[in-house]
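Example protein as discussed:

>
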Amino acid sequence: MTGGNGAGIGHAIRAEALLLSGDAGAAENEGYRALYFASAGDQDDVCCAAELTLARAAVLRGDASACETALFRMEKLAQSGKGGRRTVDLCRSFLDAVSRGILPESVRPEAGSGGCLPEEASLFSGVIKAKLLLLKNDRQAMFRLADGLMQKAEDAGLLLPQVYLLIFLALAKKDEGHVLQAKKHLNLALSLALPDRICLPFAEHYPGLKSLLESAEKTAPDPAGVSSIRSLGERYERNLETVRGVPSRVLTFLERQSALLSRGGLTAKEIADALFLPAPFVKSVLKSAYKKLDVHSKTELKQKEF
């Protein structure tokens, strides 16, 4: 961020803080300010962070169109060569896995790597990897990963990764039938989050946490805070279904890359060989790309701009 002196980063930080408190409207206002100043200063990572906040705020409001628009701008940033491909992939994976609770549509199938996520154990990508393991019901691998990440987050003094990881642990322990351990993890997450009004991570996982939060509200030192989380969770759950009900039309990087190669005449096997990916996986990526582009043949694909 040297060239632009971190333009927009203050607004981006405030936007995320407002979003985490559940104030989607104020978060969007700050997010657009961050986007304006970051774009003017060529601060691409700040732009991606702002777009992620805008997309998550749109999910909280149940606005599928606004969420798609933020994703579209994010992809255009990467395609133009300005935005980092890795940063955009991380932001999209976070939105899908953590905020929307779905497996990213075109994640590379390398075992344990979280797909297209970077190999280095950064806390941001680590949280995404932990959620992907939870979504795949690979709880033991998630436990091992979370243990190491929790220590790194504590050492770095970073609160948010700890909150997310404790929520994942609570959900996993609840699924295993260890309710007391689940409550312990949730109560620790609440003790870290509520003083700073961090509510959204709980709302994003409200269906699984609902019974635990009901119990926590009766015994928590801050029952009003837990009550506000439950209210936010009910709103998030309702609006998330609205957003999920609208199919995405924004191509992921792999979908666009595969579709371009297909348009150039390559078969699925040839594309798989070129990208060093399994052929069945490439076929599923192409199927998703064709659906989003509303085409049914290579002839139609050649006539489509994307």
